[in-house]
C-alpha cells in the first residue's frame, strides 16, 4: 500500500471510480435481485444462545448493504501518533510510531448503527500520515476513507483531523496508516463493531492481532526489498511473529500472550492479520475453530483445524473449551506455501482455568497447506451474482513487475504495477478532489478505472503476468466488499474458468494466486473514489 516514491514488493494499485461524481444523501433502496428472505425477527434478543438476534428488528438476516440501524449514538475516540520506541518481543528496543503511546494502538469499539468520530493528531517528528479503517464501507462518506493521495492530503506533523462515519457493518477489523509503509512501524490497531453473529458463543475474547515483526524499521526493510527486487530476489524474511503485540524471541527473551479459558464455555476470537508481508496460518492445539465471518461478512459456520489469514484478512471464530483441562499452544506460523518468510514463529499459551498455567507440551493440529481462502466459506445469506454480462464487461488488471522512474533523483526502481503502471498519486491533489472539481483529466499514473453505472455489477479479473516471481498478492477493495467468483493458476480464460456465481464467498480481501488469477464481482453502490490494491507493504 505504498503509493508514492518508495518501491515495495507489491505496490500494485488502482482506483475504482464510481460514475456518480457527487455523494447523494439518498434513501436506501430495496435490492431487486434478492432471492433469500431478509426478514428480521423483531422479537429476537441477542444472547449467548441467540447470537443471530440483535434488536429493533435487526438481526443476522438483515441485508446490511441496504439496511442498518441508526442508534443516534456517537462514539468518540482520540488517536495521537508519536515517535517512540518499542520492544514487543524482548529482542531490543527500536524506533516505533506509537498510537496513544502504545503498540498496537487502542481498540476502537462501536456498535452497529453508531456514528464514529475519530480525531487523529499527527505528533510524529517527520512523517505525514492518514488513517484508513480497513474494510469499513464508508457508505456515503468517501472523504473519511483515510487514503492520502486518493481521498485526502496527508496530515502534516502537528496537524489534526476528525474522521466521521456511520458503522453500517458488524464484526472485526483494523485501522492502519495509509502513508507509505508507515504501518509496519506501528500505526495499527483493532476495530470491533458489535452486532449479531451466525454462531453462538458465551464470551468474546476480543481482537487477536497477528503480525510479523522486523528488527529494522519498515523503511529500512522497504529499501532492502527494492534492491532485492531489482536483483530478482525476494523481500527479506521477517524476524518474528507477534500475537497481540508480544512473543518470545529466538533467544528466549520476551513473553508469550496468555489466554485463560473455562471448561464448557465457547469463546469468540477475532483473528486479524495486520502484517505487511506475511501470510499467517493459525491453530490451537487439540481444538477446532468454528469460522463465522470472512472479513466483515457473516458466513455459514464451518470448522477448521488450521486457518490461513492473508494480509488484511479477518476471521471471527468460536473455540469450544471442550478438551481435557490443560495448557495448549496457540500457533501463528508464517505460511511458507504463500512464499512468506519469517525467521521465527508465533506462540501463545491457552490455559484452562482449573490448571496452573505452564509451558504446554501439546502437539500441533494437522495444518492445511493451500495458499487460498477456504472455499467452504459461503455467506450466511446467499446472494447470487448475475453472470450474463460477465465476459463482455471484465476489467482486466494485469499485475507484474515494472521499472518506474519515481525517485526524485531520476533513478528507476522496480515496482509491482497494474497494467504496467505503478500508481503514483499526488499528495497535494488527491483523486477525490478531481471528482469534486468535475475534472476528469486524471493523470495516467493515478491508475483510475471507472466503474460501470451506479448500482450495477462490476467484474474484475486480476491476472499475474507470466515471467514474474510467483508471489501471491492479497487484493483489497475499499468502499465495498466483493464476491469471490474464482481463483486459478496460469492465464485466465472466460471460456474454461470454473466460476461460482450462485453461492460465491464474499469478503474485502482475497488472494491472487502466484502466477494465477482472481475473479471478483462488486456492485458499485457507494459513489466515491476507492482504492483497490495489493496489501503487501514491504
Ligand atoms: Cu488495510
Explain what the structure shows:
The chain has 538 residues and is mainly beta. It has 3 domains: 3-32 and 383-534, Sandwich (Immunoglobulin-like); 74-194, Immunoglobulin-like (Sandwich), CATH 2.60.40.420; 203-213 and 224-352, Immunoglobulin-like (Sandwich). The chain has 3 helices and 30 strands. The strands form 6 sheets. Strands 11-10-13-18-15-16 form a 6-stranded mixed beta sheet, with no helix packed on it. A 6-stranded mixed beta sheet has the order 22-21-24-29-26-27. A 5-stranded mixed beta sheet has the order 23-1-30-25-28. The radius of gyration is 22 Å and the shape is globular. Residues 1-12 and 18-41 have low confidence and may be disordered. Bound molecules: copper (II) ion. Copper (II) ion is lined by residues 132, 134, 176, 312, 476, 535.
Count of spatially separate domains: 3
Anisotropy-based shape: globular
User: Bound small molecules, which ones?
Assistant: copper (II) ion
Count of beta strands: 30
Defining traits:
single chain, 538 residues, mainly beta, Immunoglobulin-like, six-stranded mixed β-sheet, 3 helices, 36% strand, globular, disordered N terminus
Q: How is the topology of this model organized?
A:
Elements: E1 13-17, E2 74-86, E3 94-99, E4 108-111, E5 115-123, E6 131-133, E7 160-166, E8 171-177, E9 188-194, E10 203-213, H1 218-230, E11 240-243, E12 257-261, E13 266-273, E14 280-284, E15 289-294, E16 297-304, E17 307-309, E18 314-320, E19 327-334, E20 346-352, H2 390-393, E21 395-404, E22 413-418, H3 431-436, E23 448-450, E24 457-464, E25 473-477, E26 482-489, E27 506-507, E28 509-512, E29 516-523, E30 529-534
Parallel strand pairs: 1-23, 2-5, 4-9, 10-13, 12-20, 21-24
Antiparallel strand pairs: 1-30, 2-3, 5-7, 6-8, 8-9, 10-11, 13-18, 14-17, 14-19, 15-16, 15-18, 19-20, 21-22, 24-29, 25-28, 25-30, 26-27, 26-29
Bound molecules: copper (II) ion.
Amino acid at each position: 500500500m505504498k503509493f508514492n516514491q518508495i518501491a515495495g514488493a507489491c505496490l500494485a494499485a488502482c482506483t475504482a471510480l464510481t460514475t456518480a461524481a457527487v455523494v447523494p444523501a439518498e434513501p436506501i433502496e430495496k435490492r431487486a435481485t434478492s432471492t433469500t428472505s431478509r426478514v428480521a425477527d423483531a422479537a429476537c434478543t441477542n444472547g449467548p444462545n441467540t447470537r443471530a438476534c440483535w434488536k429493533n428488528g435487526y438481526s443476522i438476516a438483515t441485508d446490511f448493504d441496504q439496511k442498518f440501524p441508526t442508534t443516534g449514538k456517537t462514539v468518540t475516540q482520540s488517536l495521537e501518533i508519536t515517535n517512540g520506541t518499542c520492544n514487543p518481543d524482548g529482542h531490543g528496543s527500536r524506533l516505533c510510531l506509537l498510537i496513544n503511546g502504545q503498540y498496537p494502538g487502542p481498540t476502537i469499539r462501536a456498535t452497529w448503527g453508531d456514528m464514529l468520530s475519530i480525531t487523529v493528531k499527527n505528533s510524529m517528528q517527520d512523517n505525514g500520515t492518514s488513517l484508513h479503517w480497513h474494510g469499513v464501507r464508508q457508505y456515503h462518506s468517501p472523504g473519511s476513507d483515510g487514503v492520502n493521495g486518493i481521498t485526502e492530503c496527508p496530515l502534516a506533523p502537528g496537524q489534526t483531523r476528525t474522521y466521521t462515519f456511520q458503522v453500517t457493518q458488524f464484526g472485526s477489523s483494523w485501522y492502519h496508516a495509509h502513508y507509505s509503509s508507515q504501518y509496519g512501524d506501528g500505526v495499527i490497531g483493532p476495530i470491533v463493531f458489535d452486532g449479531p453473529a451466525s454462531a453462538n458463543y458465551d464470551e468474546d475474547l476480543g481482537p487477536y492481532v497477528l503480525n510479523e515483526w522486523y528488527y529494522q524499521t519498515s523503511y529500512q526493510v522497504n529499501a532492502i526489498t527494492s534492491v532485492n527486487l531489482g536483483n530478482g530476489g525476494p523481500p527479506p524474511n521477517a524476524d518474528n511473529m507477534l500475537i497481540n503485540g508480544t512473543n518470545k524471541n529466538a533467544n528466549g527473551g520476551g513473553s508469550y500472550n496468555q489466554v485463560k479459558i473455562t471448561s464448557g464455555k465457547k469463546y469468540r476470537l477475532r483473528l486479524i492479520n495486520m502484517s505487511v508481508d506475511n501470510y499467517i496460518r493459525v491453530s490451537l492445539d487439540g481444538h477446532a475453530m468454528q469460522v463465522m465471518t470472512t472479513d466483515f461478512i457473516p458466513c455459514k459456520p464451518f470448522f477448521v483445524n488450521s486457518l490461513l489469514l492473508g494480509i488484511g484478512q479477518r476471521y471471527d471464530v468460536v473455540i469450544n473449551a471442550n478438551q481435557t483441562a490443560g495448557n495448549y499452544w496457540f500457533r501463528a506460523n508464517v505460511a511458507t506455501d504463500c512464499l512468506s518468510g519469517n525467521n521465527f514463529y508465533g506462540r501463545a499459551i491457552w490455559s484452562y482455568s482449573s490448571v496452573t498455567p505452564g509451558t504446554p507440551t501439546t502437539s500441533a493440529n494437522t495444518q492445511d497447506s493451500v495458499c487460498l481462502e477456504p472455499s467452504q466459506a459461503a455467506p450466511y445469506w446467499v446472494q447470487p451474482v448475475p453472470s450474463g454480462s460477465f465476459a463482455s464487461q471484465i476489467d482486466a488488471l494485469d499485475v507484474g513487475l515494472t521499472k518506474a522512474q519515481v525517485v526524485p533523483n531520476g533513478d528507476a526502481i522496480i515496482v509491482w504495477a497494474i497494467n504496467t503502471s505503478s500508481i503514483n498519486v499526488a499528495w497535494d491533489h488527491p483523486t477525490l478532489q478531481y471528482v469534486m472539481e468535475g475534472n476528469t483529466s486524471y493523470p495516467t499514473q493515478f491508475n483510475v478505472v471507472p466503474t460501470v453505472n451506479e448500482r450495477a455489477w462490476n467484474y474484475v479479473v486480476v491476472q499475474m503476468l507470466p515471467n514474474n516471481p510467483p508471489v501471491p498478492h492479497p487484493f483489497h477493495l475499499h468502499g465495498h466488499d466483493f464476491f469471490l467468483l474464482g481463483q486459478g493458476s496460469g492465464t485466465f480464460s472466460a471460456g474454461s474458468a470454473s466460476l461460482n456465481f450462485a453461492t460465491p464467498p464474499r469478503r474485502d480481501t482475497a488472494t491472487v494466486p502466484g502466477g494465477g488469477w482472481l475473479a471478483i464481482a462488486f456492485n458499485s453502490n457507494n459513489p466515491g473514489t476507492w482504492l483497490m490494491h495489493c496489501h503487501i507493504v514491504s
